[in-house]
Write a structure and sequence with these properties.
This protein is an alpha+beta fold. It contains 14 helices and 36 strands. The structure holds (2R,3S,4R,5S)-2-(hydroxymethyl)piperidine-3,4,5-triol (DGJ).
Length: 725
């Protein structure tokens, strides 16, 4: 519910309240009206008076001040506040870059326009307006609440209500201020092959800024993060796939400011009279624990981001040929893989890179999205052959890219992102396409819709294997708009394609998990978590990913090597699951193991993909033992995986604990039968005991038979819980 009174704006989600007060800035004789942030946290009842939170008088001070004054908490700032702190909006007018924004009113609205994806199934929205006394420009901030979530969404737009053109130099999505002397921040950072690994930073002075600047949300810093400030644990994310920036700033007056949004790096967005620029939607939530933040983020993604067609749809078990064949395959080979896979119960064959144009390595062909019949034996025929086995058929594409050695480049070199007269920097021998150019967008949308329909694909893996530089569009007079306009174009293409093919399941991919964000998730229900398929490395990648995103979104495959086949399954089974190797080379014994794994996965797929996810104990980045659980809503069944990263425990068995079960219920607990472990394990116990620290489960891996083959193996075991009473 949103309430607007004479004095207050109270924005209530299901479990949180954000309370703003209309206030006069008494620190300066201009007497500007602004919005004071009185409270953000657990939901409060409606009261007539919130003065107890320092309304109108918080820390006003008019003495000597060369520092961060004013320090009154607020949700909107610009350069005119003289504080030197992180600001929400920066607009330049006539070469002047100081703004004096004043609060100009609040009104309930039915909705808003945005060229970017924004949360689905909105509840109520309030629009707060601020007008710049310098330029005359207006910034509108929109807060939206939802009927089933504690999350609040917020974004803004700059409308040029000035008398001539303005330039937007920075426009955030969210600002929150708190009185506290520190913030404990959890970010999910990394690189190719090690995406979204958990890091904890305590900020006591200065800023922690995470950002991306190369055109994708990036593997370096995910836009999802958590921050503990005082007693509040908060989670933040952005519905955007481009350059982003999240800042947590702590100052000597014991103030914490959190600002999130698109990055202002290389941004100088020109708005002529009447035009507007809309920022991406940020989401935020406040709970007591990290686990509750994760639950809120999962629920929000499924109910308000992912397409309703796929939000709760069970995802097929797939096999992908990439790690099995790379570029060296024929249609016949793919069909052989599909046959063996179908016999194991696998439900979808995904044909990866190399089926199109002229592409036998990564140097050529991107942009030429037509069948290389000589290689595939006819794509449509291959798809039909796979479907005749009772399987679905999926296809890889990398639409936002172009190889210099391609027909598309020879015909349209101007489609590539490149500065005229300058040899552009290639990465993986490819250039980005200029998605700010409507002709490029039309080419991609039309070509791919035709292709997907002709072949009859059930699934598309949409890859993106390099980030941007040589930023230039022949269609723009101002290149400082490029990063934003790229996504306006790219999202419009995704919208067209997903509307034309609503039943096709899309999986976003970017050299693994380099663009794992809510912007892509709006169009693509799944996201390939990482090119690193080693089970051990996956522990931290998947744990970090699942802190902010639901397990049904996370592509996770069993690869061919590294660890025992059973451990590889135990790790991958928490995601949108599949296999990624040449199954025609598997032994009969291995095929039997795979068959059993697939049967187990399918039997428990709903629970695995949509059960309530909880991490067990400490993060795997900190502890030798750990794991995860998924629990049904009514807690009548659950699955847990326990892992022991280093088997150094020669003389004793480590103690474990489960989590999230019904404390009063009696459960039958059965360890999944693993082909490499003889020991079976089945017992009954009450939920309260199972969730207590220090469970003695003995050596539940016993001696893995394949230990010699995988000497570096870590150990794992999966447990199924069924409530008995
Ligand atoms: C990078 C992806 O992450 C891989 O899974 C694979 O699709 C290759 N690209 C293909 O080029």
């Amino acid at each position: 519910m949103i309430k607007i009174t004479e004095r207050y704006i109270k924005i209530d989600s299901v479990g949180n309240s954000l309370i703003l007060a209309k206030s006069i800035d008494e620190t300066t004789s201009a007497n500007n009206e602004f919005l004071q942030l009185l409270y953000y946290g657990k939901k409060l009842n409606d009261h007539d008076d919130y003065g107890i939170f320092g309304e109108g008088r918080a820390d006003h001070y008019n003495g000597t001040s060369n520092d961060e004054y004013p320090i009154v908490p607020t949700v909107f700032t610009s350069s005119g506040d003289n504080s030197g702190r992180e600001q929400y909006a920066r607009i330049s007018y006539d070469g002047i870059f100081t703004n004096h924004f004043v609060f100009a009113g609040a009104e309930r609205v039915d909705g808003f326009d945005s060229p970017l994806p924004t949360a689905r199934n909105k509840g109520e929205t309030v629009k707060l307006s601020f007008v710049d006394k310098v330029s005359g420009a207006t910034v509108n901030q929109y807060y939206t609440v939802f009927s089933d979530s504690d999350v609040i969404a917020v974004h803004s737009e700059v409308v040029n209500t000035a008398d001539k053109e303005i330039f937007v130099l920075g426009l955030a999505s969210l600002q929150l201020d708190f009185s506290a002397d520190r913030a404990e921040v959890v970010t999910f950072d990394g690189r190719w092959g090690a995406e979204r690994c958990r890091h904890e930073t305590e900020v006591v002075a200065g800023k922690l800024s995470i950002e991306s600047r190369n055109g994708v949300s990036s593997p370096m810093h995910n836009p999802f993060f958590m921050a503990k400030v005082g007693s509040k644990t908060m989670g933040f994310n952005l519905i955007y796939s481009g350059n982003h920036r999240e800042t947590v700033e702590v100052t000597a007056y014991k103030r914490v400011r959190i600002v999130t949004g698109m990055n202002d790096y290389a941004l100088s967005y020109r708005l002529d009279k009447g035009e507007k620029l809309v920022s991406p939607e940020a989401i935020f939530v406040c709970k007591d624990t990290e686990a509750e933040i994760t639950a809120q983020m999962h629920g929000f993604a499924l109910n308000h981001i992912v397409s309703p067609v796929f939000a709760y749809k069970e995802r097929p078990v797939l096999i992908n040929n990439w790690e099995g064949t790379y570029f060296t395959f024929t249609g016949e080979k793919i069909l052989d893989i599909a046959k063996k896979a179908a016999a194991c119960g696998i439900e979808m064959m995904v044909l990866d890179d190399g089926w199109f144009g002229k592409r036998d390595d990564d140097k050529t062909g991107l942009g030429d999205w037509f069948d290389n019949e000589k290689k595939t034996g006819g794509l449509k025929k291959l798809a039909d052959g796979v479907k005749a086995l009772g399987m679905k058929f999926g296809l890889w594409v990398e639409p936002e890219m172009i190889s210099k050695n391609s027909d598309l480049y020879r015909a349209h070199p101007e489609y590539a992102q490149a500065i005229p007269g300058v040899e552009p920097t290639e990465r993986r021998w490819q250039l980005c396409l200029d998605m700010a150019n409507p002709k490029v967008c039309d080419y991609i949308a039309e070509t791919l819709i035709r292709l997907f329909k002709e072949v009859g694909v059930d699934y598309v893996k949409w890859d993106n294997n390099r980030s941007m530089c040589d930023v230039y569009s022949s269609t723009l007079s101002n290149q400082s708009e490029y990063f934003y306009r790229y996504y306006v174009g790219q999202y419009s293409v995704l919208r067209r394609i997903t509307e034309a093919c609503p039943e096709v399941l899309f999986e976003s991919c970017a050299s693994g998990g380099s663009r794992y964000d809510l912007g892509m998730m709006y169009f693509m229900a799944q996201n390939w978590a990482s090119d690193n398929t080693y089970a051990f490395d996956r522990l931290s990648i998947q744990e970090g990913t699942l802190a902010g995103y639901p397990q049904s979104s996370m592509g996770a495959h069993v690869n061919a090597h590294g660890y025992s086949l059973e451990t590889r399954f135990n790790v991958a089974a928490i995601g949108a699951f599949g296999y990624e190797f040449d199954i025609t080379k598997s032994t009969d014994e291995e095929l039997e193991v795979i068959k059993n794994q697939v049967a187990f996965y399918k039997q428990h797929r709903k629970l695995l993909q949509y059960g309530n996810y909880l991490r067990i104990g400490e993060s795997v980045t900190k502890s030798d033992i750990g794991g995860w659980m998924v629990i049904s809503d009514d807690k009548s069944e659950a699955i847990a995986v326990l892992i022991e990263k280093e088997r150094t425990h020669m003389l004793y068995h480590p103690r474990f604990t489960f989590t999230g079960l019904d404390e009063n219920a009696l459960y039958k607990v059965t360890a999944r039968k693993q082909a490499n472990v003889e020991k079976t394990l089945e017992f009954t116990a009450y939920g309260d005991a199972l969730c207590s620290d220090g469970l003695y489960l003995g050596n539940f891996y016993h001696t893995e038979k394949d230990k010699k083959q995988y000497p570096n193996t870590f150990s794992s075991r999966m447990f199924y819980f069924k409530k008995l009473n």
